[in-house]
Amino acid sequence: MVTILWDKTGTKYHKGKGLQIFADGEKIYSGATLSHIVTPLPANKAALKLWYDRPAARWTAALPIGNGHLGAMVFGTVNAEHLQFNESTLWTDGPREHAHPGAVQYLPQIRALLAAGKQKEAEQLAEEHFMGLKSAAPVSRYEAAYQPFGDLWLHFRDTASAATDYHRELDLTNAIARTTYTANGIHYTREYFASAPQKAVVLQLTADKPGSISFTASLKTPQPEYHFRKINDSTIALSLKVHNGVLKGESWLKVSTQKGRVTVSDSAITITDANAATLYLTAATSYKNYQDVSGNPAALCGQVIAKLARPDYTAILTAHIKDYQQYFNTFSINLGEGQTQLPTDQRIRQFNPATDPALAALYVEYARYLMIAASRPGGQPMNLQGIWNDQMTPPWDSKYTTNINFEMNYWPAEVLHLSPLTAPMFSLIKDVAVTGRRTAQEHYGAPGWVLHHNTDLWRATAPINASNHGIWVSGAAWLSHHLWDHYQYTKDKVFLQQQAYPIMKAAAEFFVHFLVKDSATGWLISTPSNSPENGGLVAGPTMDHQIIRDLFNNCIQAASILHTDAAFVQTLQAKYKQIAPNQVGKHGQLQEWMQDVDDPESRHRHVSHLWGVFPGKDITWDQSPDLMKAARQSLLFRGDGGTGWSLAWKVNLWARFKDGNHALLILKGLLAPAEELNGKVHGGSFTNLFDAHPPFQIDGNFGGASGIAEMLLQSHMGYIELLPALPDAWTTGEVSGICARGGFVLDMSWSQHKLDRLTVTATAGGPCELRYGKQTLQLNTQKGKRYQLQVTDDRLTLIK
C-alpha cells in the first residue's frame, strides 16, 4: 500500500525530496527531514471531506468549486455529468447614475413628519421623492442582478445505469472534487478543480481500462442572446449578451486527450475511445470596472486557453494545490472525533454536537474553503451566494446586502487566518466611497459618503426597494469597521494611512453633518433611517447610533496613530458624547428604538440593535454589564430560531455573552437539515452544507464559522481571552493558526475542558495581554517571535 506523506504545511512530497517514506497501513504521516521525528497528521485534517454515496439530485446538493473568478457546481451524475458555472462579473444593467437629483429638498419634510409621529406619511413622501433611480425599461429595477453564465454537459456514449461503488466527494485539503464509480467492470474517476493560476475550471476523466472514455461535451446558457462557434480542433466557444444589460460574455471549452479521437463542431466536442480526457473551461466578460464595459472577453479567454497549451495536467494540478494551500494551510481545528464514516448528508440529518463534534470543525474549514474559492485579491467580493448562482432572477438579486449579509461574509476572514482574502471587499469599499459621495450630496446635502442597504457590480449607493427598509444610512460606517478591524489584526500602518483612514474619515464627515438634535431629548440622532429590517422608517434607531459611535471612535484612534487631523478629532469627540445612548426598556430589554416599544413576542430575524455586542464593542461585560444583561434579554425574547444568517449572528452573540452551551444550541440549528414545507425551504443547511437561508444564502456559512471562532478566542477588548465560551460538549480539542487583534497568531489545545497548551506568535510585535479564566499574563513581544506557554492549575506561565 502506498501512503501519501505531507509536511507540516500540507505540501505533498515524494522520494528524492529529502524525506523518508513511511508505510503503516492507512495511517497518514506528516513528512519531516531525516533528522526530525515524523508525527501523525491530525485526524481532522485527513478527514476534511464532504462525501456522498449518490449523485446530486438538485443544485443545492452539488459541490462548489471556485477560483475567485469562476465558480462551478459539480453534480457528479454518471450518465450525463453537469457543471453549472458562473463568472463573477456577469450582472444585469450597466454603468449609470443611481442617486436621485433633488432628493435632499424633501429631507426636512421627512424628518419633520417622523418627529411628529407621522411615520406612514413620511414613508409615502420618501417613496415618491427620496428613493434612488431605477434602470430603464423594459425591465426596470433599482439595482442589478447577479447572473448564471452557463452549463457544461457531458453525455457519455456508454450508459452506466448499473454503476456500483459510487462515491462523490469534495476534498477541502486540496480543493478537488471527485466522482468515482464502477460500470461494466471498469472503474471511472473524475477530478474537478478551479485553478486560480490558470484561471480555468479543470475536469479530468480517467478509467482503469484503456480506451474507455467516450462522451460529448457541450455548453449551454440560460441567457437569451447567445451563439456558439468552433475555435479550432480542440476548442469551442459560447458568446452571450446579458439580458437587460450591456455586458458581453465569452466562455471557451478546450479538450486534450490521451489516445482516442476528437471531433469538434460549432457547439460540441466529441471524444471517442480515449484513455483519458482533460477539459479546460474559462469565461470572461466585457467588464473592466464599474464605469467601463469595453473589455474583450474573447481575447481574455483566448489568452487563458493559449497558456494551457504548455503545462500538462499534473503540473496544473500541482500549481493549483500550491496556490490554494498557501491560504488553507494557515489554520486547523480539531474539536474531537466524529462520524466521518457516514456520508455528509447523513451526518447533517443526525447531527449531535456531543457525538459528532468533528462536523462543527468541518463546517469551519468548509467556510474557509468557500472563501478561498470565492474571494481572491484582484477579483469581486462575495455576494449573497458567494460566487455560485443558477437563477436568472436569484433571491434578492444575489447582490451585496450591506445591512448585515455582505459584512457577515467577511466576519471570519481575519480571525481564521485569511486576511489577504479581504482585498476584494476593500476594493468594493473604495468604489462605493466614490459613488457614495454623489448620493450623500443629492440625498442629504452632506459631505463624505453614504451607502444604504444594498450595492451591486455597478456600485450603487442610493436607497432602494421601499422606504420602510431601504432608507438605512449606516452602510458606509459598518464597512469602515472592517477597514479598522483589518488594521487591528495586521497592524499594517501603510494600509491604515493610504487606504483605510481616508475612507473612514469621509464616512465620519457624512455623519457629522447628518446627525441632528432630537427636540425631546437633546441627543444627536440618526434620522431618517430604520432598524433593519424591522419597524419601518424611524428617527433614531439604536443600531445606527452604535455603528456611528464605533466609526467616530475608530477614526479618533486612527488619527492619533497617524498624527493627523487634530481639529477633526475634537469635532468627533464632541459629537460622540452627544449621540443618543443605549437604553434599557420596560421589559428589561435593550431598546431597538428611541421609544420603548419593543415587542417581547417578536421573533424577527434581524437583531440589529445588538450590533453593539457583536460585531461591535459598544456594549461589553467589562464596561457596561447592565447593558449586556439587557442585550441578552433582547436575544432571549427573539428566540433560538431564525433564518440561516440570523442563526449565525446569534451564535456570535451568545459567544460574546460567554454562554458557549447556548451558542452551540444555536449552531445545532444552523447545521440542522433543510426541509421543504409548503414549497418553502426551512432549516439550517442543505446536504452540501450550504446555508439554507431559505433559500441558499452563503452568509450563514461564514457567520457560523465566525461564531465558532468567537467561542474559542476573543480579542475585541484590547486583550486576548482564551476559551471564553467553550461549550461542555467540546471537552478536548485544538486549534492552530487562529488570529487575534494586535497582530498575534495562536496555537492552543485543551483537554477535560481546560487549556493545556498555548503558543503565541507575534506578527507585528508589541504588548500582548492574555486572559484565561481569572488569570492574566502580560507579554512584551518582538515581531516574528514565538512564545510558548504552559498551563498549570489554570495558570499561564511563559516557558520560552
Automatic annotation (TrEMBL):
InterPro entries: 6-hairpin_glycosidase_sf, 6hp_glycosidase-like_sf, AFCA-like_C, Alpha-L-fucosidase, GH95_cat, GH95_N_dom. Pfam families: Glyco_hyd_65N_2, Glyco_hydro_95_C, Glyco_hydro_95_cat. Residues 50-290 form the Glycosyl hydrolase family 95 N-terminal domain. Transmembrane segments: none annotated. Residues 313-712 form the Glycosyl hydrolase family 95 catalytic domain. Keywords: Hydrolase. GO terms for molecular function: alpha-L-fucosidase activity. Residues 714-794 form the Alpha fucosidase A-like C-terminal domain. It comes from the Bacteria. GO terms for biological process: carbohydrate metabolic process. PANTHER family: ALPHA-L-FUCOSIDASE 2. This is Glycoside hydrolase family 95 protein.
